[in-house]
Design goal:
The chain is of the alpha/beta class. The chain has 30 helices and 61 strands.
Length: 1228
């Protein structure tokens, strides 16, 4: 219970990108643990045939992608669990991955955070899995007062004033402060009003208990079991105890049907309803807990231990799990009385003498990977057996294959087994009473023809049979009693051309079918059974591999769904207007995924989606909006039940709702996600927003979003004033707002766009029925703003965030101030604040300049992180006083100009004991108080530690000692982005030794440095200068620069992809030797020489430079420097007469784009020797060229030719590849 609260709290505080939890239990199952983690990460439930090692790799990759994660491993019994085998990356793995990712992206350092929370009853288990620096927190038993308070809360407060209060207190004492016991007994005694009932309960708790189980645990759980009402509920509890941790409702359903536990339930659906009801009642009694979805449940290990003991003692159940697996079979007399046998994770030897259990009705054997031989006559003497479950067994490796099965069997589960189709046919062909058959996850390619004899079959599960290719015709059609057919992630070869496979039409012959899971690879005319009430149907989706790289993995079959009526359609331009069967199902659908639809609502349903709760639309290039203004149906009738709306990669969508007036179409919409909709400028109008009940808004990667709410209607007029009494539903409900990668976002509403403030008090919010922004954000709890580059401030003046608990802002490059003083005063519930990589931010709380000494209190803030804020000078530059009574963790990293935390007279942080320098690492400082600590960090230059993006002009102190002492301040080995602008003090930037220190440098910019002659200058003994990760060089407006590098060493830049040179009129070469002497003219003749190695150059852009030749006339060893060049642009280069020679052009094998503009002396592009040379050029030149632009070349005569020649040589027709474009206007 406590650890689940930690999980909820971690999610609420948004300190982690992912919070995953799994219960390890006494008998850990690696696949179950991996499944739990995968589901929490939103991953597809990985195919059952994947080995755990591959599953671990996928989990590891996903966690690394999430960057900040908390993994909770609950109830660990042994120290032997291997986190690496589960797929949890180590701290070093995560660090390496982050470093690699930072090399590949130039947007600043990405944060990482890895936390592992382990819980165990044995502290020795934890110490065996942890490092010395890890912390162990002992959760003690509850004190008497705490135990009593918990019991009253569970059993009811009336117990306090009742006559039997003393007895109740004695009962609580018997629980010895154990929460699981107190809660269980409290639930059992809730509603008991007679004193004799309480006396009886106390007597039960005083009775002796079996050896090996604590009385404080055993007796309360036994008491709770005793008070369960009805045999159905008690037997269901016993069956749940066998299944254990995170079990499936479907498995319980299959077992219950076979055992006839619910005789009044006549259909599969009625049985499912009964199972769900009973499981819910057991959860209310605290005997079961929630599983990872609404179709799963779990049981605490201690409760399971007691339940299995009761089952063995009172119900003739043999359950061998975990360490019990190696026990011998009981004595003959005991075997003859057994009714249920459950063997998991180990078992006695399976002898060939048969079980000889005449009363046995249930047998379960699960193989955990070891070699296992199942005798043919194992089930001899089990004539009344009703349920048989054999999982993960390779029958194909046994001489006799599948054992003989009693004919009275009603449920047969052979999940994840391997066998020949002939053996399966022989085994199941005579099971005339079989009602449930499950072959889920089996390694089978064909169903046997004998299955058509199973005429009483009600449920057939073929899920995850990924190799199943053949279902003989009419086998399905003859299963006339079939009510449920589950074929998820399985067979999809319907109506094959050979005519041997089942056809979709067979499904319509199953008149009792009410539940169907099926995948149909091609959209066509399809008929479905009329009575479907539960379905998961994919149409147009051949396999999960097709969808791995989409924004969300919603098309993977095994995603965790909460709905029972799901459809996924990939139309690929097809229309379903004429497909009545599909349209009928759409009217029932609760969760709908669409791809390739052309006209969303009009095409799919002209009567509205009356039951639809979740709608996901992606990759529909022609959709301009969800609604058509010409529709006959009122908008409010289209989606009356829609709760979740996701729109992704809709490139032409301009408005979510075109021409909308009147009532909003989304009356109960609670969550909207919009991703990669680049024509969209806003989400809603004011008139619609005030009617919405949204709880969560997420907008990501939309290039033209300027505001979230537009206060101008469709006709361009402002919306009418709304009466105060109407209020704003959006403001009452909105809890989470996430805005990412929105380069044009300037405001939450269009009225304040010009202020570049996300929330502005100057907006007339009276239109929403209130007079301030509180009507929109009055209940907002989580706000995330990333890569919104135009914002200058988050909020101004009186904008209030009184309910906000988490605030995260990053990579807003023009943001100067985060919030105003008055807004800061409203953050009374803020618990976590992260501000990172906003490079112009100077303060968090704005100084309003009124001279007042405000008092600002953050009463609940526990976590504050300031990172990559290179201009941050203080938390607040005004003289405000600050109180942080709950602040426990502060991280300050890469804030080199932070001299003092705040300027006011008072700064109170009573709970803070240190300032962490780098997240995830045990590096910190503390000097009595926060202000003094920050001052010490400034003096010690800690702010430069870890700095990855360095704009030198921001650091005058660094520039003063750049060539002498800069390495004492900066860790050059971490810098990835180096930029110097508007500098008139440097003649060069780097020496060779200094250059070699920049081992992680990815981006180098030198702009408007009028005195700089070289970027790198100097003679040192190293053989070469290497920039191993540099991929972009920009040199612009450097009037004295003659070369990028001057020195005798070679220059190697193996990952350089882009070079941009502009307005550097004196630059003649990229790299030159220091002492040139008589060869000076030759050295400066070419821009690139053999001194430079750049094998991956992709783009070269030269503008306003006066080089004579870009490459030598013979490349020889330099050919590798151009073999990957894809785009070449030359503009305003006054000395170039030609671009390339015929001998050089053959090396440009990847060139796709060639642009030459305003080169006054250029006569030809390719210089040739003669006509034969021209023929060779035409055969080999630019094989991939598809864009050619030649403009404003006054001396231009021909594409291939000799300079100053009057011989006409044809223009470049035939050089362009495929349908490429050419613009030839050389003299205009």
């Amino acid at each position: 219970m406590l650890v689940k609260m930690v999980r909820v709290k971690a999610k609420q505080d948004s300190l982690f990108t992912a919070v995953v939890m799994t219960e390890v239990t006494k008998n850990p199952d690696l696949k179950s643990i991996q499944r739990d983690i995968a589901l929490d990460l939103g991953m597809d439930l990985l195919p059952t045939e994947l080995p755990p090692e591959q599953v671990a790799d996928r989990i590891r990759a996903k966690l690394i992608e999430m960057k900040k994660f908390l993994v909770i491993l609950d109830d660990v019994w042994e120290a032997g669990i291997d986190l690496e085998k589960v797929g949890i990356p180590s701290a070093s793995e995560l660090k390496q991955a982050m470093e690699k990712r930072n090399e590949e992206h130039s947007s600043g350092q990405e944060d990482m955070l890895r936390k592992i929370l382990l819980t165990s009853r044995d502290p020795n288990v934890l110490s065996g899995m942890m490092d010395e620096k890890d912390q162990v927190f002992k959760v003690l038993e509850l004190e008497d007062d705490e135990a009593w308070d918990l019991f009253k809360k569970i059993a009811g407060s009336k117990v306090e004033s009742s006559d039997f209060q003393p007895i109740a207190k004695e009962i609580v004492k018997k629980c010895l402060g154990l929460p699981v016991a107190i809660v269980t007994v409290g639930k059992a005694m809730r509603g008991k009003t007679q004193q004799f009932e309480w006396e009886d309960a106390l007597m039960e708790l005083k009775r002796p208990t079996p050896e090996g189980i604590s009385a404080a645990v055993y007796k309360p759980i036994e008491l709770s079991y005793k008070y369960l009402q009805g045999d159905e509920l008690k037997q269901t509890f016993m069956l749940c105890s066998l299944l254990g941790h995170d079990s499936s409702i479907n498995d319980l359903l299959k077992y219950g049907m076979g055992l006839t536990l619910f005789p009044k339930a006549k259909t599969v659906e009625e049985t499912r309803t009964k199972v769900l009801t009973l499981v819910h009642r057991l959860k209310l009694s605290s005997l079961l807990v929630d599983g990872h979805s609404n179709m799963h449940f779990g049981m605490h290990d201690q409760i399971r231990e007691v339940a299995l003991s009761i089952a063995s003692r009172d119900h003739n159940v043999l359950a061998l799990v975990g360490e019990d697996g190696g026990k011998d079979w009981p004595e003959k007399e005991t075997m003859e009385n057994l009714k249920w046998i459950y063997l998991s994770n180990g078992y006695p030897e399976l002898t060939s003498n048969g079980l000889n259990c005449p009363q046995l009705t249930f047998f379960h054997l699960s193989n955990k990977g070891c070699s296992l031989a199942v005798p043919t006559d194992l089930f001899t003497g089990t004539d009344v057996l009703k349920v048989l479950c054999l999982t993960r067994i390779d029958f194909q490796s046994m001489p006799s294959e599948i054992p003989l099965i009693p004919t009275m069997l009603r449920t047969l589960l052979l999940d994840q087994c391997v066998f020949r189709v002939e053996a399966l046919g022989t085994s199941v062909g005579n099971l005339e009473n079989l009602e449930v058959l499950s072959l889920a996850g089996c390694d089978i390619e064909e169903l046997p023809r004998e299955m058509e004899k199973l005429t009483k079959l009600k449920l057939l599960d073929l899920s995850d049979c990924t190799k199943l290719k053949v279902i003989p015709r009419q086998v399905l059609a003859r299963l006339s009693k079939l009510e449920e057919l589950q074929m998820g992630n399985s067979f999809d070869q319907w109506d094959d051309v050979e005519g041997r496979n089942a056809g979709l039409a067979e499904l319509t012959e199953l008149h009792m079918l009410t539940a169907l899971e099926v995948r149909i690879p091609n959209f066509r005319e399809i008929l479905f059974p009329e009575n479907l009430e539960r379905f998961k149907i994919f149409i147009g989706i051949a396999s999960r591999e097709s969808w791995e790289y989409y924004y969300w993995d919603s098309y993977s079959w095994n995603s965790s769904f909460e709905s029972s009526k799901i459809m996924k359609l990939k139309l690929q331009g097809a229309s379903i207007e004429s497909n009545d069967s599909v349209k009928k199902l759409l009217k029932k659908t609760e969760e709908l995924y669409l791809e390739g639809v052309q006209r969303l609502v009009d095409e799919l349903d002209d009567e509205g989606f009356q039951h639809l709760k979740c709608l996901h639309v992606q990759n529909a290039p022609d959709i301009r909006g969800i609604f058509n203004p010409a529709r006959r149906l009122l908008h409010s009738q289209v989606f009356p039940m829609l709760e979740v709306l996701t729109l992704s990669n809709l490139q032409k969508m301009e408005k979510i709702c075109h021409g909308l007036t009147g009532a909003a179409p989304f009356k109960v919409l609670s969550k909207i996600t919009v991703v990669r909709c680049h024509q969209l400028k806003n989400l809603f109008s004011f008139s619609m927003a005030r009617q919405l009940q949204l709880q969560e808004i997420t907008v990501e990667n939309c290039d033209n979003i300027a505001e979230i709410i537009d206060d101008v209607d469709e006709q361009g007029n402002g919306n009418d004033i709304v009466e105060e009494s109407e209020g704003c539903k959006l403001g009452n409900n909105l809890r989470s707002l996430t805005l990412k990668d929105l380069p044009k976002l300037s405001s939450f509403t269009s009225s304040s766009c010009s202020n570049m403030s996300l929330f502005n008090d100057k907006v007339d919010y009276s239109k929403l029925g209130k007079h301030d922004l509180l009507s929109v954000l009055g209940n907002l709890e989580a706000l995330t703003v990333h890569f919104c580059e135009t914002l200058i401030i988050l909020s101004t003046s009186t904008v209030s965030f009184r309910t906000l608990t988490t605030l995260e802002v990053s990579h807003c490059k023009w943001m100067i101030t985060l919030v105003s003083t008055s807004t800061a005063q409203s953050l009374v519930n803020l618990k976590g604040m992260i501000v990172s990589y906003c490079h112009k931010l100077t303060e968090i709380v704005g100084n309003e300049g009124d001279g007042k000494q405000d008092s600002i209190n953050f009463p609940k803030l526990t976590y504050l992180k300031l990172e990559g804020l290179t201009k941050l000078a203080s938390f607040c530059s005004g003289n405000s006083n600050f109180e942080f009574p709950s602040l426990e963790q502060v991280i300050v990293n890469q804030c080199p100009q932070l001299m003092k935390f705040c300027q006011g007279d008072k700064l109170d942080t009573p709970a803070l004991k240190r300032v962490q320098l780098i997240a995830g690492e045990d590096k910190w400082r503390w000097a009595d108080n926060l202000n003094t600590t920050i001052e010490q960090m400034y003096i010690e230059k800690d702010g430069y530690a870890g700095l990855q993006n360095l704009l030198l002009s921001d650091f005058p102190e660094v520039m003063k000692s750049w060539h002498e002492k800069s390495q004492e301040m900066l860790h050059f080995g971490l810098i990835q982005d180096l930029k110097i602008c508007d500098c008139s003090n440097f003649e060069y930037l780097l020496t060779p030794s200094l250059a070699l220190a920049f081992v992680q440098l990815k981006k180098l910019e030198v702009i408007n440095c009028g005195t700089m002659k070289q970027v790198i200058l100097g003679e040192e003994p190293e053989n070469q200068i290497i920039f191993p990760h540099l991929w972009l060089i920009i040199l612009e407006s450097c009037s004295d620069m003659t070369s990028f590098y001057m020195g005798s060493q070679n220059l190697r830049i193996p990952e350089l992809h882009h070079i941009y040179l502009k307005d550097c009129p004196k630059i003649l070469t990229f790299a030159a030797s220091t002492f040139l002497g008589e060869h000076e003219e030759e050295a400066f003749q070419y821009f690139f020489s053999s001194k430079v190695e750049i094998p991956h150059l992709d783009t070269l852009d030269l503008c306003s430079i006066n080089v004579k030749k870009i490459w030598p006339d013979e490349l020889s060893s330099m050919s590798s420097s151009v073999q990957n060049l894809r785009k070449l642009t030359v503009r305003d280069s006054g000395n170039l007469k030609y671009l390339l020679t015929s001998s050089v052009v053959k090396s440009f094998v990847q060139l796709e784009v060639l642009e030459i503009f305003e080169c006054q002396l250029m006569e030809v592009v390719i210089l040739i020797k003669d006509r034969e040379d021209e023929k060779r050029v035409r055969q080999m030149a630019f094989p991939k060229l598809n864009v050619l632009e030649l403009m404003v070349l006054p001396q231009f005569k021909k594409f291939c030719g000799k300079c100053n020649s009057l011989v006409e040589i044809s223009e470049p027709q035939g050089l362009l590849n495929g349908s490429g474009s050419q613009v030839l206007s050389p003299t205009s």
